[in-house]
Amino acid sequence: MATARRLSYIREVVFSGFHPTMTTISDTAPAVTDARPIPNAMLRGALMRCPHCGTGHLYRAYLKVADACPACGEELHHHRADDAPPYVTIFFVGHLVIASLLAVDIAYDWPVWLHMAVWLPLTVVLCLALLPMFKGALIGLQWALRMHGFGGPEIGEAASGRPSIMAS
């Protein structure tokens, strides 16, 4: 019976087109019907708002994510941002600051102390200002893709809640 369902599912995917937010491959998981647009969720996260409703605050402190949205109640404690936001922030700020530094150095003849006085504080301020935005965008991406408990199965579990063969 399960094999027949899988074959039917494969036929449906191959011959009728497939949209990942409309169906799931598991026999036991309910069909997912609510679409979560990635750009909207990432923009809401970057604006430090709940990726679901866009009105509740994402953070309770500087980089501490709230356990749940105060407006809609969406649980937000599932996120696993880890080291990605600092990497993206350093990449972005580094390119911006180095390009600006080189442009100013070519156009003007600043002494080294002036470069240090301008570019070091600017780098620190930009990193501290952009880090919550990049972390929020990453949390929005995880929410939209149903990663890490935002509506999908946890790592090492099948959709039915049982351990998966693919987890090892």
Question: Can you walk through the features of this model?
Answer:
This protein has helices at 2-16, 38-46, 84-107, 112-144. It is 48% helix and 0% strand. The protein has four helices and no strands. With 168 residues, the protein is an all-alpha fold. α2 (38-46) crosses α4 and α3 (84-107) packs antiparallel against α4 (112-144).
Q: What characterizes the major β-sheet?
A: none
Task: Provide the gyration radius in Å.
Answer: 22 Å
How many E-type strands?
0
Q: What is the helix content?
A: 40-55%
- Separate helix tally: 4
Q: Helix and strand string, N-terminal first? A: HHHH
**Helix/strand-derived class?**
mainly alpha
Please state roughly what percent of the residues sit in beta strands, choosing from under 5%, 5-15%, 15-25%, 25-35%, 35-45% or over 45%: under 5%
In angstroms, what separates the terminal alpha carbons?
27 Å
The shape is elongated
What is the arithmetic mean of pLDDT? 80
Low-confidence stretches: 13-30, 162-168
